[in-house]
Design goal:
InterPro entries: AN32, Leu-rich_rpt, LRR_dom_sf. The chain has about 240 residues and is α/β, with parallel strands linked by helices. It contains five helices and six strands.
């Protein structure tokens, strides 16, 4: 894919040479997410101009200063991760004031985090940011798309729990089930008995019909026999005449 079309680029664990990674240049015009974690980056002096870049991951490098370059070359950054670098004082971070769209900054495991009133100082210095090291000034955690989904599921669970202790309903359901089972059983017995009785009545009627039918057939055969007997006698009488 041509650099012009790339929107996300992950170069974690690659090795930078003289402060740059070979091939990373200004041709990545559409780049919005760039990750260069643990690439032994000492400086940002050779960072290319990436005007559409929103998220920049620079954790676990050896950057100690020169952050003013970010505002010049990545002016639209909203998220910057500098955790695990060599940033020691507020003066170094002050250069990020020009990143007007910056909302989240991570400085985990940097020496600066050991300063007294570190969090208050950073929020005062960089008034445009909402989250520092994943939390806002009131210690509310920064939202994450996956966490939002999980929270939604938890809310659903809470709603179910608020409806009342499940045990009570389960017991009631069991009682209802037991009662309905008994009811069905009784109905089944009643239906079964009446059904059997009907069947027996029908069987008796069928037997009677069969017997009657048999008698009729026997009678018919007797009549035919008589006719056959009569016919020869009639013929004999005619011959005598």
């Amino acid at each position: 894919r041509a650099p012009l079309q790339v929107t996300e680029l992950v170069l974690d664990n690659c090795r930078s040479s003289n402060g740059e990674i070979e091939g990373l240049n200004d041709s990545f015009k559409e780049l919005q997410f760039l990750s260069m974690a643990n690439v032994e980056l000492t400086s940002l002096a050779k960072l290319p101009t990436l005007s559409k870049l929103r998220k920049l991951e620079l954790s676990d490098n050896v950057i100690s200063g020169g952050l003013e370059v970010l505002a010049e070359r990545c002016p639209n950054l909203t998220y910057l991760n500098l955790s695990g670098n060599k940033i020691k004082d507020l003066g170094t971070v002050e250069a990020l004031q020009n990143l007007k769209n910056l909302k989240s900054l991570d400085l985990f495991n940097c020496e600066i985090t050991n300063l007294e009133d570190y969090r208050d100082s950073i929020f005062e210095l960089l008034q445009q940011i909402t989250y520092l090291d994943g939390f806002d000034q009131e210690d509310n955690e920064a939202p994450d798309s996956e966490d939002d989904d999980d929270e939604g599921d938890e809310d659903d669970d809470d709603d179910e729990n608020e409806a009342g202790p499940p045990g009570e309903y389960e017991e009631e359901d069991d009682e209802d089930d037991g009662a309905s089972d008994l009811g069905e059983g009784e109905e089944e017995e009643e239906v079964g008995l009446s059904y059997l009785m009907k069947e027996e009545i029908q069987d008796e009627e069928d037997d009677d019909d069969y017997v009657e039918g048999g008698d009729e057939e026997e009678e018919a055969e007797g009549v035919r026999g008589e006719k056959r007997k009569r016919e020869p006698e009639d013929e004999g009488e005619e011959e005598e005449d």
